[in-house]
Design a protein that fits this description.
92 residues; mainly beta; four-stranded mixed β-sheet
Length: 92
């Protein structure tokens, strides 16, 4: 019996996470800008740009967001208009 990789494409592994490093934001802030949980979002600052999934949570204080630094720009990251159609990713 052949086994597929359990690093990314195994169904059980895919159910354990969103597949990317998520962008956490407050539920009221998300509602103000029309973002729903698990939507693709693009965010940028002076250090760079990310394109990833949103995690909408009441646990995040209003007015801030959290993105853990430095996942690679590989599978699951779409191309970013801000980066001239290169992958968004999270390496800033």
């Amino acid at each position: 019996m052949a086994h597929s990789s359990t690093y990314y494409d195994d169904l059980r592994m895919l159910t354990l996470s969103r597949g990317v490093e998520p962008f956490w934001l407050n539920e009221k802030d998300a509602a103000d800008i029309g973002v729903l949980d698990n939507d693709w979002v693009e965010a940028y600052n002076d250090n760079g740009v990310i394109v990833t999934r949103a995690v909408v949570s009441a646990r995040i204080p209003r007015g801030i967001c959290i993105f853990y630094h430095a996942p690679e720009r590989t599978i699951s990251f779409p191309k970013s208009p801000v980066r001239k159609n290169r992958r968004g990713g999270g390496n800033q």
